[in-house]
Amino acid sequence: MRFSAILKAMTFHSVRDRMNLFFNLFFPLVTLLVFGYVFSGIYSPQGSMNVGYYGQVLPAVSGVKYVEYPTLSSLQEAVNSGKIDLGLTLDGTSLITYVSPANLQSSDYYTSISKSVADEINKSKGITNIINVKRNDVSFSGKQINYLDNLIPGILALSIFSAGIFSITASLAHFRDKKVIKKFWTTPLAKWEFYAAFLFEKMIESFLSIILLFFVAMVFFHPPYSIDWLRFIVTTLAGTFGMMGIGMIILLLSPSARVASEISSVLYTVIMFFSGVYFPLDLLPKFLQDIAYGLPLTYIVIAMKSAMGIAPMSVLSYWLTIAIMFFGAVLVLLGFSRIFKID
Questions:
Q1: How far apart are CA 250 and CA 246, in angstroms?
Q2: Exposure of 2 in the CB half-sphere (CA atoms within 13 A)
Q3: Residue 70: per-residue pLDDT
Q4: 258 versus 74: which is more confidently predicted?
Q5: For residue 20, what pLDDT is reported?
Q6: Domain span at residue 114?
Q7: 141 belongs to a structural domain
Q8: Which residue, among 135, 46, 57, has the nearest Cα to 90 in the 3D structure?
């Protein structure tokens, strides 16, 4: 009875805690939708592409709508002003391409369009390539995986990271500073009831947040995942436990909830850029890769990608990672004891 009453109180406090809602739900959800639409637009262009040309008429290419310009300068101006996506002109044996620096994020797509036009020109002249280069993506899951599909597990892992850390440095720090915990001990309440209610509420909160993010991702972006639900659930729970341990260390080193939250916010901002959430670790310099592989969020990202079937991870490596994450629970319990002694 007392456990359910404490659990109800914890839930009510979490709902009213704006910082808790922001970092555990609102921020990851907005990040997912914003990045999802941005990168789905870049990597999956829709409709016809406006391509300007000057000089010789260019052959028809699927997905391309040509616009003729009377001078080279007018073509360049149209590209620079954004009136057209791409500019082309045939100069002897060279097909010159004009792209605005503002559209460099789509350079690979523009290059493929230029190559298609060049191939059609060669065919019209009776020229065929002896050796053609064809790209085949070899996917771990056997499905076509793009950048957005890799980004979504990273955002889910980031939500796990924030849920674990801020549940300690925000909620528990607030209880400590307001002497709420001390007031509990004037009642017949047992310590284990407070431990259990707090941890249970935060674990459920984190899990529901991850499920909501996953549901939104599937509805809006339809990623081709093959979910291992056992690994998915275990990764969420173990990751939250592990991050609670880090949050407890921050709390014990901080004199107040405000300081703990500020340290957590800085740590959150720094770590998310060096843990493979937004871009592959291979793009980082070697010394930053070494730092990345020393960050806990990196392993949550890898484990989540493994659970969602888009990246390989051996059984031994996965369960070793999960075991280490569960050691965070030990830090949480030790931290509880320390906080209660202080109060």
A1: 6
A2: 11
A3: 92
A4: 74
A5: 66
A6: 49-124
A7: no
A8: 57
The C-alpha atoms of residue 307 and residue 32 are separated, in whole angstroms, by: 18
> CA nearest 298: which of 158, 162, 163, 145?
158
| Any domain includes 62 | yes
Asked if the structure places residue 139 within a domain, the reply is no
Residue in the structure block whose two tokens are 């529901």 = 208
Between CA 301 and CA 308 the distance in angstroms is: 11
Q: Which pLDDT tens digit goes with each residue over 257-310? A: 788 888 888 888 888 888 888 777 777 788 888 888 888 899 999 999 999 988
Q: What are phi and psi of 288, to 5 degrees?
A: -75, -30
Overall average pLDDT of the 206-233 stretch: 89
Environment class of 276 (CB within 10 Å of its CB; exposed 0-12, middle 13-18, buried 19+): buried
d(CA 326, CA 321): 9
Q: What is the C-alpha to C-alpha distance for residues 198 and 319, in angstroms, rounded to an integer?
A: 26
**133 in a domain, yes or no?**
no
Judge if 113 and 153 occupy the same domain. no
- Asked if residue 167 and residue 58 are part of one domain, the reply reads no
Which DSSP string corresponds to 16-70?
A: H-HHHHIIIIIHHHHHHHHHHHHHHHHHS--S-EEEEEESSPPPP-TTEEEEE-S
